[in-house]
Design goal:
Elements lengths: L4 H13 L4 H8 L3 H13 L3 E3 L5 E3 L1 H15 L1
Antiparallel strand pairs: 1-2
Helix pairs in contact: 1-2, 1-4, 2-3
């Protein structure tokens, strides 16, 4: 499955930094807040992240696997 650059950065940010809100992810990844929010919605629809309440997102098991793969590919 193809990931957009924002989705990839979002997943890696959640992997590295832990559960967080879109505005913090936006700041850490240097992507616009609306782009991060949209990517989180897309990732949630695909089962890679979940909103645990109050706008805080966390990786699911599949999201963690995908984030680790994305991070490996980015580092190589």
């Amino acid at each position: 499955m193809a990931l957009s650059p924002v989705e990839r950065s979002t997943l890696i940010c959640l992997l590295d930094e832990g559960d967080d809100v879109p505005s913090n992810i936006s700041e850490r990844t240097n992507h616009h807040n609306k782009s991060v929010s949209r990517s989180l919605s897309n990732l949630e629809e695909r089962g890679h992240v979940e909103n645990k309440g109050r706008g805080v997102y966390r990786l699911t098991t599949s999201g963690e696997d995908l984030a680790e793969l994305a991070k490996e590919l980015e580092e190589s």
